[in-house]
Amino acid sequence: MSLKGAVCKIWATVKFFVSIVFNVYAVLGVVLYLSATAIYDKYTETQYPLKSSTPKDAVVLLNLTSGEINETSVYGTPASRWANLFVNSRSNRFSFSEQVYALKQAATDEKVKGVAVTIAARQWNGAQAYEISEALLEVRNAGKPVYVFIQGSATNYDLLIASAATKRYVSPGTFVRPVRPIYGAVFNKGFYDKFKIDFVGQRVSLYKDLILDDVKYQVDQDVKSTYDSFYQIYLDTIKTVAANYDKQVTDFDLSDEALLKLFKEYKGNFAQAFTDQGWFDGVVTKADFDSLVAEEVQGNARNKKLPNYFSLASYASAIENPLFDLNASRNKDHIAYVALVGDVVSRGTAPDVISINNTLRYLRAIYYNANNVKALVLRIDSPGGSASTGVTIRQAIDDIRAKGIPVVVSQGYLAASAGYMLSSGSDYIYASPTTITGSIGVVITGYNVNRFIEQFDIHADAQGYGKQFATGFRIPYFVAGWANPYGDQVKNLWKAGITNSYHHFISQVYEGRKSHFDSLEAVHRVSQGHIWGGTDAKTLGLVDGFGSVPEAVNKARELIVLYQNEREEDKFSRGTLNEVKVEDIDKLPVVYYNAGRRYSITGDTLTTRVLNTFDVVTGGYFSSVVNLVNNLIAPEDQVFGTYQARVDDSLISPNQGQ
């Protein structure tokens, strides 16, 4: 081969490899471009609820088979947009209250023949089960059939929902039983004593349960009082179930001995056992249940095996008068609605936390729009959290009330501790019998491992003005504590700090509930960290009545009539203050202030398919990266707490107490 031929050969080879490389880069470039645009489209997508049309002879389907029921419909934060990249659920665009309200509308909708409910391991809570059952009762009392199908397992709250039906069916093999409450803890005090670890946490609330396992050796009166509250909730649930069935309470409040007898008699077949007891109308498969609905509810002559179900989410978008008016202007007269859901934290932007930068801006928007806002309805479902954040948000609610705007609260499953602090700053509080509320108290946790490390000739010491807070030796993985030779002084400082916080807490409750408590001492007697079920809370004056968001909205309309003559125009607010005529009160729209831009895909679109394809090709690595980005955006947004109030004042403790 000549030199020229060799050079040409080499050059051709180089060109070949260059073309391959550039083609690969071109392909990668296209892939990256498609990925970037797909993510951007999904991230910025705004899916306002599409207006559906209710078909004739519709059977509204409430499918309680997987996942949680969202109390919010907030999908407008960066964290939630990333999290929803792979979400295809239509129902995510509607809050729980919107869907329950739509369910109630089925009672009077001529196009709706009935309602079908399927239950299978849904993660709901007691208040949600109660509100669903109340909505189903309205449909049942309107003379329309309500069919319920349970599969997998069924306990108290499943039975509560099923009790509101006209016909109840259970699948073969379903584990059905009422569950009496059990409340206890693993007590660590003996362990700490053995290893010479000193618990320096403090509480001024006798029944605050966060630190019970650290200061007690066994169950005593503190734990028993909490159990009593849960047992009362259980009794209220069983009484409601019995009333809906038109049976005796003893038919459902079964002892362990009675359950064991049934278990042996039916050889573990609880589905058949409780069907024979009259709890269910039959043991059927899902296909058989669908056939029953098609034939008996819908009257489907053409297809007797499968009814034309109309999902509750679709029905929520089809009703003529939804709970919230998405087209209403905030610059005109309206009722404001804000959902306060999740842990009370100092910072966070996710929809399921209550924080200053996430929640306060909506309340301040209402404050500066006072002339157009006729009333404020709050949905509170929170276990509590940061005491200082709770005080800040409570002050924002007080500022709104100071402008003459009535505030009505609908409590969800939890309105405890800081959650109740927010509730008490209202004119009227609704709850459910299964609501857990109260827990008015403050507690802080901490451990001193100074005596423990001294066993190994390790000594901690410090000098300076802040020596009481010296943390020279930490054991982060063994126990959340530190070595401090001034442990007793720390305890005294903490005690003083949380005593002041507790006094401020009960003072705020007293200021908000003066019509129910004649003195601060009266508030103290029902406080001390004690949790209460809805029935006890109503008796004690902590809540005013039973109801949900629709009832709270109706109460707000009543208070508008009572209060509007006392209001004066706010010259610092937008618009002008107009008096609403009595005949126009019911026409006032309800504006969901923190609904956000409802980010949720309605079905499998090209964007979703592209994203899912990349995820499959990368073996799930793509979604892992997305989740990592989500965590980097808001690492603390999804943290939920317990039923406590946290003292997060850094001058009191460098270790965030709860």
Automatic annotation (TrEMBL):
GO cellular component terms given for this protein: membrane
Any GO MF annotation of the entry: peptidase activity
Record flagged with keyword Cytoplasm: no
Gene3D superfamilies: 2-enoyl-CoA Hydratase, Chain A, domain 1
GO biological process: signal peptide processing
The Peptidase S49 domain, residue ranges: 140-240, 401-559
Keyword terms: Membrane, Transmembrane, Transmembrane helix
Highest taxon above the source species: Bacteria
Bilayer-crossing regions: 12-34
SUPFAM superfamilies, sorted: ClpP/crotonase
Record: active site: K208 (proton donor/acceptor), S417 (nucleophile)
Keyword Transmembrane helix: yes
PANTHER family named among the record's database cross-references: CHROMOSOME UNDETERMINED SCAFFOLD_55, WHOLE GENOME SHOTGUN SEQUENCE, PROTEASE 4
Protein name, entry field: Peptidase S49 domain-containing protein
Source organism of the structure: Psittacicella melopsittaci
Taxonomic lineage from the root: Bacteria, Pseudomonadati, Pseudomonadota, Gammaproteobacteria, Pasteurellales
